[in-house]
Specification:
The complex is a heterodimer of chains A (421) and B (300). With 421 residues, chain A is an alpha/beta fold. Helices cover 31% and strands 21% of the residues of chain A. Chain A is globular, with a radius of gyration of 20 Å. Chain A starts with a strand and ends with a strand. The termini of chain B are close together. Helix content of chain B is 38%, strand content 15%. In chain B, helix 2 links the parallel strand 1 and strand 2 (68-73). Chain B has a five-stranded parallel sheet with strand order 7-6-5-8-9. Chain B has a four-stranded parallel sheet with strand order 2-1-3-4, sandwiched between helices. Classes of the chains: A alpha/beta (421), B alpha/beta (300). The interface between A and B is medium-sized, with 22 and 26 residues.
């Protein structure tokens, strides 16, 4: 029997509304109301003790691109970033579009991952946007949602069928909203900055039209629909509107979409290239407002590792995406909490009950009997991010050498301390 | 020290280069003078995109200053064998040239080069971003005929969206107080261009652009950069092609410029290209003088 006591911390549990100093007990991997004698103790005095953080949008690159990341290294980066559960997108090689690939990921995670890894299955075979993947079998094998992240379903009829089927299986549909015709060839947000730099633009409208389409289809089908990495003013407004009408529509944004904007892309640094692109200041403002108002339910990182030689190229040739697991808490504290925009409890909600509700997970709470996953962080800890010390196999972060006030201190999965600062 | 673009160059720096290039201009009917300022230095022209005039111009400029000039074109190099830019650069760097002149289809490629190599990098055109020596030679060509750029009305007409020449010229002209009117079909004239620099206005009407212009710069439609079905050539010429009749709208001694290569009957009529107003060949000549000034400034 394994057990652990987390002592003296300020416990914040948005699921129950609790906020105060108390001890937490974990016995046999779940929260309990008492522990056996001589149970090991973790002193969390002066720290925040929260339900284990969930990152519902990461890329682990395994199977197929293990030179950039593996389930093992990605999980270590997650733990170092304060996450106890991560959901991996299906754009591996092969694509996670069958129970075979799902089972492979689940078994590799069981062997090698120090945090919980929950796979997300593809919507269509090979994420080619034409034929539905084996969604039912994948659900049996362990997927928690479906998405063709990175290769959005352009055919609206296919999306409609996917939503109908997902509804019958009670799976959420996550869409990377990008009209590929409007964004074709684009490398950064279309605006003054792209015009100045001579880079081809990805207009905000490429996101907006797909969010609009999806919300209409979600209403028609009754599906649970989730917007991945929302980044534009219009898209946030549409999600807010859908919510007022009682639709089952949710949205996530990433730290980089509320921390950085397109004017900060300087000297063609490929670590500022991702999809959706860093938007203009007005869009960033709207994303922040969405996080504050509740239009946005979740903060996810879209952790997208790429090997150094892939990112060391001309800006327009290098792949999209940046790593994010290790900087998410620091960036959110800095931009959202320390600036007074949201409370600590709201921040924790965005990382716990937010994603747990979208995905229908039992995690994200400290209630007795729930999985003993805990994120301990110190909102005042001074530290500097050094990408060369990253647990990820990749180094593509624009936040190298950034100084933070506040960051993760310990990550506990099923009552086991898997990482500590 | 590099020359990556006009945008971040000081006005005084530009003035010095324009002044110095005057010294390198040949006398009527003569060739460019030989100097030995850069004797023993090696300048590598690294051209990842087809170019005749710019590459030749840089080559002549380097040789006239006494340097050894070597041109490498992408199709004839290991780039076509799949070598990455960073490896090409490291290889070239190991050969210890004193400067690299680079043209590349990707915006920002010379900036990438400049981050990795400690020698001067000269941007000879990067994607749809900048082409600084073109703007310098255009300014030199205008100043050969006008006392100052200040207050001039310069119409730049054509495929502005994909033009590095337009961007560099807008930055330069703006620094000197000229007024620039950018003109082209809506799809090739993004509204954000108006915020590129001060003194820039946009219009989709060629007559409006040319009205009272001192300088008319015509640009080629860059089909290779458009990635979508373009407006038909006939439609384009009808609305955005420069014809003799248009010149009456401009100032009496207005000049017509073009960075080349020109497409007769596409963006300007043959009559305009060959008219007295055209200074297209003077631009080519000034290209060498300006590039000599740039190489001297960065290397001597």
């Amino acid at each position: 029997m394994t057990s652990l006591i987390i002592r003296n911390g300020r416990v914040i549990d948005p699921a129950t509304g609790f906020d105060g100093i108390r001890d937490l007990y974990v016995v046999n991997g779940v929260f309990a109301d008492s522990v056996p004698e001589h149970t090991p103790q973790f002193d969390a005095k002066g720290m925040i003790v929260a339900p284990g953080f969930i990152d519902m949008h990461v890329h682990l690159r395994e199977p197929g691109m293990e030179h950039a990341e593996t389930i093992e290294s990605g999980a270590r980066a997650a733990a170092a970033g304060g996450f106890t559960t991560i959901c991996c997108m299906p754009n591996t090689s092969p694509v996670n579009d069958s129970a075979t690939v799902t089972s492979y990921i689940v078994s590799r995670a069981k062997q090698n991952a120090i945090v919980n890894v929950l796979p997300i299955g593809a919507i269509t075979k090979g994420s080619a946007g034409e034929e539905l993947a084996a969604i039912g079998s994948m659900k049996k094998a362990g997927i928690v949602a479906i998405s063709d992240d990175g290769r959005p379903v352009m055919n609206s009829r296919v999306m409609r069928r996917a939503m109908e089927f997902a509804r019958s299986l009670d799976l959420p549909v996550i869409d990377h909203c990008e009209d590929l015709n409007l964004s074709a060839g684009g490398d950064m947000h279309e605006g003054v900055m792209s015009t100045r730099l001579g880079l081809r633009g990805i207009p905000s409208s490429s996101e907006d039209v797909m969010v609009a389409r999806d919300i209409i289809l979600a209403e028609a089908t009754g599906a649970r629909y989730h917007v991945a990495h929302i980044s534009t003013r219009q898209a946030v407004a549409m999600v807010a509107f859908a919510k007022t009408r009682g639709l089952r529509v949710t949205a996530e944004t990433t730290p980089h979409h509320f921390v950085l904007h397109d004017e900060e892309l300087h000297d063609y640094d490929s670590n500022y290239k991702m999809k959706p692109p860093l938007r203009c200041a007005a869009d960033v403002e709207a994303v922040i407002e969405g996080v504050v108002s509740g239009a946005i339910d979740v903060i996810a990182t879209d952790h997208a590792p790429h090997a150094g030689n892939d990112k060391m190229q001309e800006f327009e040739r290098c792949p999209f995406g940046i790593t994010g697991l290790e900087t998410a808490i620091g960036l959110t504290l800095k931009t959202m909490v320390h600036s007074g925009k949201i409370s600590l409890a709201r921040m924790i909600e965005l990382f716990t009950t937010g994603p747990a509700n979208v995905l229908g997970l039992a995690a994200g709470t400290l209630s007795i009997g729930a999985p003993g996953d805990i994120t301990v962080f110190d909102p005042g800890r001074l530290w500097t991010y050094d990408v060369n010390l990253s647990q990820s196999k990749s180094r593509n972060s624009p936040f190298h050498k950034m100084r933070f006030t506040g960051g993760p201190v310990a990550t506990i999965v099923s009552g086991r301390i898997v990482w500590s600062a | 020290m590099n020359l990556l673009g006009i945008e971040h160059l000081e006005r005084s720096e530009i003035e010095a280069l324009l002044e110095r290039s005057k010294y390198f201009q040949p006398l009527e009917g003569q060739s460019f003078q030989r100097h030995d300022t850069l004797r023993g230095q090696m300048v590598v022209n690294l051209f990842f995109e087809a170019s005749t005039r710019t590459r030749t111009s840089f080559e002549i400029a380097a040789k006239r200053l006494g340097a050894d000039a070597l041109s490498i074109t992408a199709s004839g190099s290991s780039v076509s064998k799949g070598e990455s830019l960073v490896d090409t650069l490291n290889t070239l760097g190991a050969m210890r040239p004193q400067a690299i002149v680079m043209r590349h289809a990707a915006s920002g490629a010379p900036h990438f080069l400049a981050r990795h190599l400690p020698i001067p990098i000269i941007n000879a055109g990067d994607g749809t971003h900048e082409h600084p020596t073109q703007a310098l030679l255009d300014a030199r060509t205008i100043l050969d005929r006008r006392p100052t750029l200040e207050g001039l009305r310069v119409a730049i007409i054509g495929d502005i969206a994909h033009s590095r020449v337009a961007r560099s010229n807008v930055h330069l002209l703006s620094k000197f107080g000229a007024h620039t009117v950018l003109c082209g079909p809506a799809s090739l004239l993004p509204r954000e261009l108006a915020q590129l620099a001060t003194g820039v206005t946009l219009t989709n009407n060629i007559r409006e652009a040319i009205q009272d212009a001192d300088v008319i710069m015509m640009l080629r439609v860059q089909l290779e950069r458009q990635h979508e079905v373009p407006m038909s050539a006939g439609e384009y010429f009808q609305f955005f092609g420069l014809r003799l009749e248009h010149l009456a709208l401009a100032k009496p001694h207005a000049i017509v410029m073009h960075p080349g290569p020109i497409n007769r009957g596409r963006e300007l009529s043959s009559e305009v290209a060959d008219s007295q107003r055209s200074v297209i060949l003077n631009q080519v000549e000034n290209g060498i003088a300006v590039r000599m000034a740039v190489l001297e400034r960065l290397l001597a």
